[in-house]
Every structure is written in structure tokens, then in C-alpha cells.
UniProtKB/TrEMBL annotation:
Highest taxon in the source lineage: Bacteria
PROSITE patterns associated with the record: OMPA_2
CDD domains reported in the protein's UniProt record: OmpA_C-like
Region entry Disordered, spans: 1-42
Gene3D superfamilies per record: OmpA-like domain, Type IV / VI secretion system, DotU
Keywords on record: Membrane, Transmembrane, Transmembrane helix
One annotated Gene Ontology cellular component of this protein: membrane
Annotated protein name in UniProt: Type VI secretion system protein ImpK
InterPro entries, A to Z: Bact_OuterMem_StrucFunc, OmpA-like, OmpA-like_dom_proteobacteria, OmpA-like_sf, T4/T6SS_DotU, T4/T6SS_DotU_sf
Limits of the OmpA-like domain: 326-444
Family annotation (NCBIfam families): IcmH_DotU_IVB, IV_VI_DotU, PRK08126.1, type_VI_ompA
Compositional bias annotation for Low complexity: 20-33
Length: 444
């Protein structure tokens, strides 16, 4: 892959600290003994990540790096995730500043764990440069990062003192591709950055997407060949069975194999013969049954429970009467025999009778209407100011007994009619006695 018009000097700013891009200045050594990056205009010190990364977190990352095939790629995972999940919108400049601080901290942490892992400083510097460039490009593409808001304090400017990373990113690839054994870990990280959408100088170049795809494919081929992770054989299992594996089967006599096969065939034939005979017998029985009269079972008629039968003992004692039709039943309580005079309570000795009626009504089922009636003799008490209230209270009392024995509340209604529906002449004592009553009307 060509390194472009910049030549080798574009790579020296990271990989050859002994000479600057102009070939004249000599950088000083870093405190750790590693040469500082030459050609950096911004000499502000790199942010120390010690205040942000507790020792146990750094130690955990170091352990993962030691276990990884590519320690550089493992160390760069947080920044790669940030590159993939760059927010599309931020609601304030404070949020932009917070994101920039987070990225600065993570770049510094990346540098720190790589130093502790004793990774080659050239590799670390190249990956850091590429990550800063890609993160700056991703931020500048957003609405909140466009217009120079992010570029004024970009990561590449802060850590490297440069703003043209989109050109040098591809120069790094071209230079490292000449020695893939040395820079294979770096190339793999740069390949991941390209796969996450980094375009660099090709974002404005004619036919840029095609060039980017060609670079990615060449890098994949280079990495795969260097890592030896891809099999080149079209059929890695083309060889047959090794001698000796079929020796046991070859030792079985032919006549034994033929005998077992014949037994299996005969057993299969016998099974299908049996199934065919069974189906033939069933079909023959169906043919013979044609024309015979079909015996239809008589429908089972369930006799409806009748209150006149269930309450025959109470009817015989004259405590109540029952009138029934095909769809309803009416149970009538004589008020003089059941309720105390001028009261809504029944006589104590008739509690079992009312309980029996409630149980049988619930047993029969249906919708129930309890209606209270009185004679035309006026009543004026504090509890019962008139006959209508007295009839309502008596009906409600009987309805409560029915509910207490299992009648659903939504299927029962209690009403009072007072003296509006007499069944006898109120001018005689016998007629008034018949008019004082409570009726339980059940519809089936």
C-alpha cells in the first residue's frame, strides 16, 4: 500500500523520535526514559490518569491485556467502544465539555496501562495517534461537534499538537505494512478503527468509499496472513480413514451380515403384513355395518328441582305455600305466622324454617326477587313510619338470609310494596291477615 505524497517523514513523527519532521530539532527524553513525540506544537503535559483510575482497575486491565492475543487492542477497547457509540446529540456545551474530559481521561489511561505493560512505545504512540484522530472525526461529524466547537480542543491537538491526522493515519498504515511482523498488533487496531467508519482524507476524495474498502480488504489479507488465523486448504479433511479403524467391522463374516439383514427384512415385512390385516378387518367391519339401523341413545333428561317437593314438609305444616310454573316458583310466607307483629324480625322458633327455604332456593338457582306486602292498617312508629318501610324491611331481612346461605348478591333483589297489591279484602281480619305476607319469586 502506498504511503502517499507525504513520504517517510510523515511516519517519523511517531516512530523515529531521534529526528523531528524537519530533521533538525532533537527532542528530550520523557521522565520514564521513553523519547518524547517530536514535532508536537502543543507542549502541555499529558493528563495523568492516576487520579481517575484506581489501582485495582489498572491491575484488572493489565491482567486482561496479558491474557489477550493483542494487548494493544485490549487496552484500546474502552476508546473503541466510545468511537462506536459516539452520541448523536448533546444538549449543552457543558455536556460537550464533560465528554471531552472523559475522552482525555481515557486516552491518558490507555497510555498508562500500556506503559505498565511495557508495550513498545512506538506501537503505543501510533495507536494513540490513530484513536485521537478517529474520535475527533466522529465528534466533528455530529451536530454538537460541528462548526469548530470540538476542533478547538480536539484530542489530537491536545495529545499530539496536530490537526491533520486524517492524512497521516493512512501514511501510518502504508509504512507499517512494510513490516507487518513488527506492527501486526497496531495494524489490527487501525483495521478496527476503519471498520467503525473512519474515513480521514477519503471523506472528501472522489470515489472515497471504494478506496477505503480496498484498504480494508488489503489490511484484512495482511493481518490474516501474518496471524495465520485462516486455513488456506479448501478441504482440510480430504484424507480418508486411517488404516485400522474399520478392522473390527471387516472381521465380521459376510454370511453373518447377510443373515442379520435378512432377519431385519423379514421382521419389517411381518410388521407391515400385520398392520395391513388389521386395517383390512376394520374396513370389512365398516362395510358390513352399512345399512344397519343406527342406534341413537335416548337423551338424558335431567329433572328440574322443584321447590314444591323440596319444601313439602313446611307446606304441610301450613308455614308457607308454593306456586310453580315451568319457568318460575313463588314461595309465600304468611306474615302473621313468620314475623313478629309490627316488626321486621321473624319469630325465633321459625329460624330453621327460613334457613331451610334459603338453602333450597340457592340449590334450585335462578334470579330471586323478594317482595314485602302489608295490609292497609296504618302504622306510625319511629322505626317504621309507614307500611311501605315495614314491607321493605321485611323483604330485606329475607334477602339477607338468602345471601348468607350462598345466593349471589347480583342475582337477588328486595323490594317493598306496602299495601298496594292486596290479595284479599282489607275490610275483614282474615283478608288483612292474607295481605300481610312476604313472597320469594324465583325465575329459572
Amino acid at each position: 500500500m502506498s504511503t502517499g505524497a507525504y513520504g517517510d517523514d510523515a511516519f517519523e513523527f511517531l516512530l523515529n523520535p531521534d529526528n523531528s519532521a524537519s530533521g533538525q530539532s532533537q527532542p528530550s527524553a520523557s521522565p520514564a526514559g521513553r523519547p518524547t513525540t517530536a514535532g508536537v506544537a502543543n507542549q502541555e503535559p499529558v493528563v495523568d490518569a492516576a487520579a481517575f483510575d484506581p489501582p485495582e482497575q489498572v491491575q484488572t486491565r493489565l491482567e486482561r491485556m496479558k491474557a489477550a492475543r493483542n494487548p494493544l487492542c485490549e487496552a484500546a477497547q474502552p476508546l473503541l467502544r466510545m468511537l462506536a457509540d459516539m452520541p448523536a446529540s448533546l444538549d449543552s456545551l457543558a455536556a460537550v465539555a464533560s465528554l471531552r474530559s472523559l475522552l482525555v481521561r481515557e486516552v491518558a489511561a490507555f497510555q498508562k496501562v500500556c506503559d505498565k505493560a511495557s508495550l513498545p512505545w512506538k506501537h503505543v504512540a501510533a495507536v494513540r495517534y490513530a484513536l485521537c484522530t478517529a474520535l475527533d472525526e466522529a465528534a466533528n461529524r455530529t451536530r454538537w461537534g460541528s462548526g469548530g466547537i470540538w476542533a478547538a480542543g480536539g484530542l489530537l491537538l491536545k495529545f499530539e499538537g496536530e490537526v491533520d491526522g486524517g492524512e497521516k493515519f493512512f501514511l501510518l498504515i502504508g509504512r507499517m505494512a512494510t513490516d507487518p511482523q513488527e506492527y501486526i498488533d497496531v495494524l489490527e487496531v487501525l483495521y478496527r478503527i476503519l471498520s467503525l467508519g473512519f474515513e480521514g482524507r477519503y471523506s472528501v476524495a472522489a470515489d472515497g468509499p471504494r478506496h477505503l474498502e480496498q484498504i480494508r480488504q488489503r489490511m484484512l489479507t495482511l493481518i490474516s496472513g501474518t496471524r495465520d488465523t485462516m486455513r488456506l486448504e479448501l478441504s482440510p479433511h480430504w484424507r480418508g480413514e486411517e488404516p485400522g479403524r474399520m478392522r473390527l467391522l471387516k472381521s465380521v463374516p459376510v454370511w453373518a451380515t447377510a443373515g442379520v439383514a435378512a432377519l431385519c427384512v423379514f421382521s419389517l415385512f411381518a410388521w407391515y403384513k400385520y398392520r395391513l390385516l388389521a386395517q383390512s378387518n376394520a374396513l370389512e367391519a365398516k362395510i358390513l355395518a352399512i345399512g344397519e339401523p343406527v342406534k341413537v341413545a335416548a337423551p338424558v333428561v335431567h329433572e328440574r328441582l322443584r321447590l314444591s317437593i323440596l319444601l313439602k314438609d313446611e307446606i304441610a305444616r301450613g308455614l308457607l305455600s308454593v306456586e310453580e310454573t315451568a319457568s318460575s316458583s313463588r314461595v309465600v310466607f304468611r306474615g302473621d305466622y313468620v314475623f313478629l307483629p309490627g316488626q321486621s324480625r321473624i319469630r325465633p322458633e321459625l329460624d330453621p324454617v327460613l334457613t331451610k327455604v334459603a338453602q333450597e332456593v340457592v340449590r334450585v338457582g335462578g334470579n330471586v326477587t323478594v317482595t314485602g306486602h302489608t295490609d292497609n292498617q296504618p302504622i306510625h312508629t319511629a322505626e317504621f313510619p309507614d307500611n311501605l318501610v315495614l314491607s321493605e324491611r321485611r323483604a330485606a331481612f329475607v334477602a339477607d338470609v338468602l345471601k348468607a346461605h350462598g345466593m349471589p348478591g347480583n342475582r337477588i333483589e328486595a323490594v317493598g310494596k306496602g299495601d298496594t297489591q292486596p290479595v284479599a279484602d282489607n275490610s275483614t281480619a282474615e283478608g288483612r291477615s292474607r295481605n300481610r305476607r312476604v313472597e320469594v319469586f324465583v325465575t329459572h
